[in-house]
Amino acid sequence: MGDMNTKDFLIGTLIGGIVGATTALFLAPKSGKELRSDISEQAHLAKEKTAQITNDVYEKGNEWVDIAKEKSTSIAKNVSEQSQQVVDKVKDLSTSAKQEAEDQMIEAKSLAKDLKEDAKEAGKNIAETVKNEVDDAEKKAKAAAKK
């Protein structure tokens, strides 16, 4: 919005200067030859001023373009660096989470194996105890049958 106001101001100033100079020439009491000479001189001055303003605006525009390029390059570089850091952190977290899951899986398998062995051992102990109790009951039954 500020650029448009500056542009409008410059155009208005240029047109106002041309209109003012032309009005001054036409209202001045001079001969036709002097008037044509003054108009030609003023037109030449207006052309020079317009060329100078055009050059100034062009140079200023180029400066702004250079500044914009520098800033956008800097911003793009920062965004790229930060994106890479985020990607690296995600990869690190993913790797450590995968490793932790693998460690937990190994531990779970080990615990399951231990429980299976404990269950086998407990089953053997129970079976042995039951066999002993049955043998004892059988002995008692035979002893009672002999009496």
From TrEMBL:
The keyword Cell division does not apply. Residues 98-147 form a coiled coil. It comes from the Bacteria. It holds the Pfam family YtxH. Keywords: Coiled coil, Membrane, Transmembrane, Transmembrane helix. It comes from Shouchella xiaoxiensis. The lineage of its organism: Bacteria, Bacillati, Bacillota, Bacilli, Bacillales. InterPro entries: Desiccation-related_membrane (IPR052928), YtxH (IPR024623). The chain crosses the membrane at residues 9-28. Gene3D superfamilies: Apolipoprotein (1.20.120.20). This is Gas vesicle protein.
